[in-house]
Amino acid sequence: MSFPFPLLRLPRLVLCEVFKSLNIGEKIKLSICSKKVSTQINYCRLYSQKVHVHLDMYSNKIEVSENGEDKFKIFNWSVSVIKTNRQQYQIEGRTVSVISYNKGINAFWENDQKGFLSVLRYLSKIFQCKFLISDNYKYDSYEKTISELFDLQVEFKILTICLNGSKDENLLWNLISSNFGLVEDLRISSSFNSGFRPVFTSWPQKIYIMSSAWFTPKYLLTCTTCTTISLEGSLLENNDLDETLWKWQTGGFPNLEFMKILSHNITNNGTTILGMKLRELNRLVIQTNDGSKKATIKTGYGRIEMSVTPF
């Protein structure tokens, strides 16, 4: 005859090691079994920078993975969706109907969008995870979800923002722009139809902007903490790049590893860059004044790239 194992009677240190040995799915499933188990798992602080949470707001799906493997999917549905074999579990202090399967669960909420946010808050307590939002920025829940995550001070592996001048998007930008230090890779798609222009009060590690005509030379000279700068559809000119490269040589971009700028205003007939024409810069190796770093420049019509390596 078999008996239930008294898991919660184990010494706390032993219990923590048991929790840490579980895979992502096992940790999540066990944590929602009861409030006591959830409390113990939260106490053990199963933090890992390797845990990523990918959001799909179109289908209300959340995918949790570690090292890109061991993927566990959480689908959030309305209770009006007819399903059988539901069991009752605890998520964020709420009793939720859940269907469990091998690599995921289906959770049923009175309001599936609020349920989506509840699951995100819950995951942020269990893991010190990084969130990925690489698309789905056109859906109604986008602004509310992003704002909620920034309120929780979570970190973003990838954050995609679409800016077209709408009131909601402008408001969201003003709310989150001071917290871009929490973002590793910020990707911006923009097509402005109004007088709104973003103001950066902080910078991510990496920034990629499509249609970056609004990204001024002043912005470029200000984003000195970025490791990667990639601008498409820019209006920057030769003299802007000349000033930028001089600033890099004097140590003004200490973290920069790669920069790429595409602009029709980058020409071989305009102002020289570092005293040379555009074609003369191609394959040129330059270095900082203190000799600590070098960079290889590649050029073409309307394009300049710079790859930085330390000596």
UniProtKB/TrEMBL annotation:
One Pfam family name is F-box
Residues annotated as signal peptide: none
What InterPro entries does UniProt report for this protein, alphabetically? F-box_dom
Domain spans labelled F-box: 4-50
Domain of life of the source: Eukaryota
Protein name, as recorded: F-box domain-containing protein
Task: Provide the species name.
Answer: Caenorhabditis remanei (Caenorhabditis vulgaris)
